Automatic annotation (TrEMBL):
Top-level taxonomy: Eukaryota, Metazoa, Ecdysozoa, Arthropoda, Hexapoda
UniProt keyword annotations, A-Z: Endoplasmic reticulum, Glycosyltransferase, Membrane, Transferase, Transmembrane, Transmembrane helix
Coiled-coil features, chain-numbered ranges: none
The name this protein goes by in its record: GDP-Man:Man(3)GlcNAc(2)-PP-Dol alpha-1,2-mannosyltransferase
Ranges of residues in domain Glycosyl transferase family: 295-461
Its job: GDP-Man:Man(3)GlcNAc(2)-PP-Dol alpha-1,2-mannosyltransferase that operates in the biosynthetic pathway of dolichol-linked oligosaccharides, the glycan precursors employed in protein asparagine (N)-glycosylation. The assembly of dolichol-linked oligosaccharides begins on the cytosolic side of the endoplasmic reticulum membrane and finishes in its lumen. The sequential addition of sugars to dolichol pyrophosphate produces dolichol-linked oligosaccharides containing fourteen sugars, including two GlcNAcs, nine mannoses and three glucoses.
Organism: Neodiprion lecontei
Gene name per UniProt: LOC107224525
Compartment(s) of residence: Endoplasmic reticulum membrane
A GO molecular-function descriptor: GDP-Man:Man(3)GlcNAc(2)-PP-Dol alpha-1,2-mannosyltransferase activity
Record-annotated ALG11 mannosyltransferase N-terminal domain positions: 55-261
Amino acid sequence: MGLFCISCSIISTLKVLLFIGVATFIGGLIVLPILIIYVRIHFAKNRAGRLRKETVVGFFHPYCNAGGGGERVLWAAIKSIQTKYPSVHIAVYTGDLDAEAEQIIKKAEKGFNIQLKPGIEFIYLHKRKWVEAAPYPYFTLLGQSLGSVWLGLEALNSLQPDIYIDTMGYAFTYPLFKYIGGCQVGCYTHYPTISTDMLRHVYRRVVSHNNRRIIARNPFLSAAKIAYYKLFAAIYGLVGRCAETVMVNSTWTEEHINAIWNCPFKTHRVYPPCDVEHLTKLPLLTMEDKNGIIKIVSVGQFRPEKDHPLQLRALYELRSIVSEELWERIRLVFIGSCRNADDEARVKDMQDLAKHLALDENVEFKLNVPYPELVRELQEGTIGIHAMWNEHFGIGIVECMAAGLIMVAHASGGPKADIIETQRGSQTGFLAENEKEYAKVMAYIMSMHAKDRDQIRTAARASVNRFSGENFEKGFLRAVEPFFRSKQE
Ligand SMILES: *[C@@H]1O[C@H](CO)[C@@H](O)[C@H](O)[C@H]1NC(C)=O
């Protein structure tokens, strides 16, 4: 009797579940498409009734007043469109409610030395908090992505552009603008929302910023998380492919985007504009100008991944392979900003390590130096050293090369893929992997004939033009040109 009752209640529970399942299915299959068609028609009508007849380009950049590298790309992109297509109307979607249009423009013009034409419209978005991590302690990626759709809806509702260009990587907004808004969609991606590296951390069950300890330690939670990530990556690929032209900022990003979006034919590598022009104009100093002092310059924040200890150990190795007379002329100069107590502690550790290795006479620390002094150090240097493993790009390396240093960088990541050419004849620098290699390469550079050194310096300077504003403009315009061609027909 009791057993019968239990099976009865199980059956009725199953019935309820089945009912919910069917209802969701019908809802998803019938109601959702009707809703989508309805909104589409609504937006198509909107577009037909629009008063503005010129082409409208909308840039989606909710943090446009931040003043970082991503913003330089935004303003340089806007400037290039203004120059090439003067009759186009440009709008920027921003969530910076506290900044007025003039303030934003002024900050961009001053901060990036970019002159913009007047007439840029700002569309203020109020729902930006939904793309921040704070509201989603769990399933952060999914939460932020759905939040971006919500923010995108607000944007589309405020202004419906002809061409939509996302410069912050909110891929989940692309289907919205493409299928509902009827826009042409392009994007510039600095960083994939989910990368194969993140998946690997969960696979190997290591604790990292995207993998909590409790998950790394539990095989079931890890398996569930892998499933979640895989599903997310699949959807990310689906929405990303909605863009008709995809720009990526480096080889690293290109590889990851290709792995997930898998649309290499419409993916273009367009390096972001670096402000190196003034550095390439500095006169190259000779060894006599430098009083015979050979400075090895290391520019970088005092963060653990920059691997300053490796640089010190390399100097230690160097000492054992050069003459005493040469050693007296060698200085390793660390230049970097010290932002907090952690940084200070690391600097202290480094100074202790230098003492321990008996290098302190030949090592200098320059903390928080003003920009003109940094430039002078670069100019007086002979060798630039960089030791971070797998850096995605390395703008610091580009700046050192522009200033005339001969770089020895870590043989991995962006330095290897994008920046340094080691082929004889077109050599622009050196790569190394461990302290012995670094030491050997530096000793070799010091033993080179000045003429051969200058050849590398000149080639390095010429090569950093690939990262100039002018080259960015060319690459960007080439990638978005089809949008404007179809508008003019
Ligand atoms: C691309 O963007 C990422 C994320 O902002 C950054 O780490 C990387 O340095 C950028 N690459 C270039 C070439 O600027």
